[in-house]
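In the previous chapter we treated chains in isolation. Here, by contrast, the input contains two separate entities that must be folded as one system, with a combined length of 770 residues.
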Amino acid sequence: MLASRVMTLEKTDFYPDLFSAGDKIYFDHNATAPLCRKIVSSAPELLEAFGNPSSIHQFGRRPKKIIRDARNQFAKFIDCHPLELIFTSGGSESNSLVLKSEFLRAKKAGIKNPHFVVSKIEHPASIKSIEQLKELGLKVSWIEVDRNGQVDFSQYQSLFQEPVHLVSCMLANNETGCILPIKEMCQFAKSQGAKFHTDAVQALGKMEFSLKELDVDYASFAGHKFYAMKGVGALFSKQGNVIENLISGGGQERSRRGGTENTLGIASMGIVAEFFPQQKSYIEYVRTLRDSLEEKLVSRISNLEILGRETNRVCNTSSVFIQGVDGESLLMNLDLAGIAVSTGAACSSGNPEPSPVLIAMGLSHAEAQSSMRVSLGWGSTMAEVDRFIEELEKVVIRLRAIKENGGEL
Amino acid sequence: MSKGRVLLAMSGGVDSSAAAAVLKEQGYDVVGVTMQVWDYNKSCDLTMEGNGSCCSSIDVEDARSVADTLDIPFYVMNCEAKFKASVIDPFIQNYLDGKTPLPCVDCNTFLKFDHLLKKMNELGCDYLATGHYARIDKDRYGNSVVVTSADTFKDQTYFLFTLPPEILPKLLFPVGGMEKPKVREYAERAGLSVARKKDSVGICFVGKGKYAEFMEEHGNFDPKTKQGVFKQYPDGKILGKHRGIHHYTYGQRRGLGLSHHEPLFVIKTDVSDNTVWVGPEKYLFSQRLEMNNTHWHTQLEEGEIVDVKIRYAHSGAKARVYKNENGTAKIEFLESQRAITPGQAAVVYRDNSLVGGGWIL
């Protein structure tokens, strides 16, 4: 049963063979995913619709329709009303937009020091927005997350002793894949009169969820983590919310986000949503691969820990702590062997500091530096998993031998 | 057929960039790496080039672009913590102790030829290469020795005296056999964007001449506690107040702010009471020095006359070296030398080859 599923899904025309790059293995889908093939084949036609979607004349009609279609498709996919979607340039903009907008709303309502409750493992787009807003009077309380990526609910509740304006917590964590109990957290926040934002960038395509069911006020999405294009994303803003825009402009996105629309990018999000009807089977397929990868990791390599393994996680991510192995050297070795994984978030790879997420989860500096993230995708195969394990085992044995020998081979 | 895999330290400058092209042409598999040693976002204007710095973000991008041009793998390694502990902190402490530090040697000792040597092993590389102007040769007994570069003006062997001799067979200095103009020409021919980039000068993490400001920003001391007076050497006449001893180094003439009938130089600094002694140039001359933490690559014969450099820009002077058991040594020059500066290195050569060296006390 399992084998046949693996067989049938191995070469779908959904996933690009334009990416099955010879002998290279891409296991870094949480950094970005390859482009859905259908986008590539549709692009020429979409690009011909060069008109400005806001134009009244006929040149505006086709791009306007392209955007409308994509809005409907994507809204259906995440289960919201199409007009509740604001297309942005990506996840970072969506997160920045909601946090700054809500801060401004609170200020305008006369609250001197608006109070946000934010998890410690948010993406830098959120954390840095918060840092900026703190200078303008924002008060922040931090939600703690444990070594399994889980929230201590009573600690969370204790943050509401003062009135809370907004809670921001991600749906799935980029580094561990841990799923946070957003529905319950949101329910509690609402009972306390707070609004709720979830960064769902890493959840898209890796778990099933419905915005209606989660009942959040805001949710952020990025196209490129979902096999759509880079430079496009969305913010779900529930009907009734008022947005203070970050980018002022000509009234696009119902005046919530100015700037002539990125027609092709927006279309790409619709295409993936539309072309991905069997979400469940893809998710199950990737989960099978990931679970098998983890079993092999644990059985073949000693002193190895998979973070959050016993908890609810998205289907594709493994955060692996390998004792006595420097993550930086591990990553470079694998890269030289044609295998892409990551340590920490890709955005910070120019500056390979230990992952703040892992530190927030209570790992020591040294432990975080001995960690790597493996993230599979819809195009990953069992053969790749096996080759990865083989290569990894070789590298780990060598690095540990060198370490025992004081740096020498 | 590959001649082996080489880990190359790339700074984004012309020399290490040309080294990458040379190695590639010679048939090595090159892996480029830049050590991010200092967060320049904090201290530098990112849009300025040639801040006299070797590893600012722009330089990292230059190194990356060279690696792309040559199509070699390239990585940035974060070495900030190690750099701070082994280079910056001792640099500041040396200054506060009244010495004139030489951080490039510490960077070589603890980063380039220690940390990167480990990385060389970890990445399964056969060699470690840098863009230093130096050569490795065999002496008459077949041992590897460091020899001065073809470009005698650029020669950087002065900074390499702490290299453990046993690692020499693992090292490659691809531009050591070339003169600087040839290196630029080579880079130009290889199509490298950095071919005409300005040479870095001074100490990479400080920026032009702003030593005192740097220490006040990064050192753990109160600048006010470093203030004191100028005294005339040797009679002790007080000539005025100064801004703090970390502003002054041995032999310094500029920036003293004293008017006197003859040029005044810093003759010594006394950290116990923050006195800066100044006097005429003649007091800067001496015929001997003592040094500690010595490193030796080859043996010296009793009473042998060798060449000794007492600073990077020094052309070397004839001297005899007397080693002690405890890693210290005494050097006596045949003629007296100007400004033998504590904190700098005395590096010993026989003809062109590096014999060893130590830290001037």
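The first strand of chain B starts at residue 5 and ends at 9. Helices of chain B lie at 14-26, 40-43, 57-70, 80-96, 103-122, 180-189, 211-218. Compare these points with the single-chain example from earlier in the chapter.
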